[in-house]
């Protein structure tokens, strides 16, 4: 029997994340986003830019990405291993990135960033930042 579980890694506490965002994350995040987006405009820099965009939640508020774990039970033994969700076809992802992902991600991250600058919009902004990999390149 096998099942898949999405597990949240242990993040820093809310207070630490909030203090990081107030003193460092808000300005470091904007610089990180701008550099990633500038790299995205070059052919050579696209892979680095996508990796940088995937790290935005960590730079902004020390948030770790969710991990997908596969739990398999074989008789009396339970095996837990890290698994990765199958990605969409790389050609489809490349076409999406060229036609939509590069410009939509710029709008998306700036809107999320602006929401994070408000107290009320902060939670929604963080949720939006968690979705950046999917917006940029349909990454699951």
Describe, in plain words, how this protein is organized in 3D.
- It is a single chain.
- This protein has helices at residues 14-40, 46-54, 56-61, 90-116, 122-130, 132-137, and strands at 2-8, 66-74, 77-83.
- The chain has 140 residues and is α+β, with helices and mostly antiparallel strands.
- The chain has one domain (2-137).
- Strands 1-2-3 form a 3-stranded antiparallel β-sheet, with no helix packed on it.
- α1 runs antiparallel to α2, α1 (14-40) packs across α4 and α4 (90-116) runs antiparallel to α5.
- The radius of gyration is 17 Å and the shape is flat.
**How much strand?**
15-25%
Q: Roughly what percent helix?
A: 55-70%
Please state the structural category: alpha+beta
Can you tell me the residue ranges where pLDDT is under 50 for at least 5 consecutive residues?
none
Give the strand order, joined by hyphens, for the main sheet: 1-2-3
> What is the radius of gyration computed over CA atoms, rounded to a whole number of angstroms?
17 Å
């Amino acid at each position: 029997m096998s099942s898949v579980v999405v597990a949240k890694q242990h993040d820093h506490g809310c207070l630490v994340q909030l203090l990081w965002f107030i003193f460092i994350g808000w300005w470091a995040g904007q610089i990180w986003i701008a550099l990633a987006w500038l790299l995205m405009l070059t052919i050579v820099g696209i892979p680095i830019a996508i990796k940088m965009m995937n790290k935005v939640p960590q730079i902004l508020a020390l948030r770790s990405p969710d991990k997908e774990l596969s739990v398999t039970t074989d008789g009396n033994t339970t095996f837990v291993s890290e698994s990765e969700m199958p990605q969409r076809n790389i050609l489809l992802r490349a076409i999406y990135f060229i036609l939509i992902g590069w410009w939509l991600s710029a709008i998306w991250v700036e809107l999320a960033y602006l929401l994070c600058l408000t107290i009320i919009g902060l939670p929604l902004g963080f949720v939006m930042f968690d979705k950046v990999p999917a917006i940029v390149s349909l990454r699951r």
